[in-house]
Structure formats: C-alpha cells, structure tokens
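Supplementary notes for students who missed Thursday's class. We covered one full example, reproduced here. Read the sequence, then the structure, then the short commentary at the end.
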Amino acid sequence: MHIDFDKAGGLIPAIAQDADTGEVLMLAWMNRAAYEETLRTGRACYFSRSRGKLWRKGEESGHVQVVKHVYLDCDADTILLKVHQIGGAACHTGFRSCFYREVEGDNLKVIGRPVFDPAQVYKK
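Structure (token representation):
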C-alpha cells in the first residue's frame, strides 16, 4: 500500500479537482476501503464521517466523479483525485464546487451559482 492510513488514525484527506480546468471541487475523507474501491472502480468513493460508512459520490444525486488520475503528496497522507464531475455539481448544496464562498473581511460573498436544487435531488 502506498498510503500511510495509520498515521492519521485511518482517515486521510482527499481533494477532488476538475481534471480539465484545475478547479478544486471538494475535500472529503478516505479510509483504506474507500481508496481501494476508488482505484478498482474508477469512480470516487469516500468515507462519510457523519454516517460512519463508505460514501459513493453521486449515489443519491447521480453526480458521480469519474477518476482520471490519482496523486499522493510527499508524506503519503493526502490524496489528490483529478476527476470528471458528472452532472455539473460536486457540492451537496447544489454548487459546482464546495468552495463557492469567498471571505471578505467579516463577510462571506457567494461567488458561484447553484447547478441544481438540493430539495429536488435529495428527497429524503
């Protein structure tokens, strides 16, 4: 195994970046099982800390991430996925990127536009 999952208690950060534009789409967490599934299937799989289980990106929304390249940082404890984002949005709030707000002093300025309405996509 290339990655030292034990160093950080079993979970390591995984950054998803658009393979074509370089836009940072999101940060999530991976455990060994999520990493192995991602490599095996070519689709991004993460570990949901809130649910305590594997989270296959797009399993509810259909907005999957097709993995084009996988990179590791110098310490082997952070993953960078270069992906093709299917469905136009990586963020569960409906925005293309989770980084759709810019800090301006004490305020947050929304700099992105929603791609979908979460209430329509996540019918729980």
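Commentary. Residues 32-41 form the longest helix (10 residues). The chain has a mean pLDDT of 93. If anything here is unclear, bring it to office hours.
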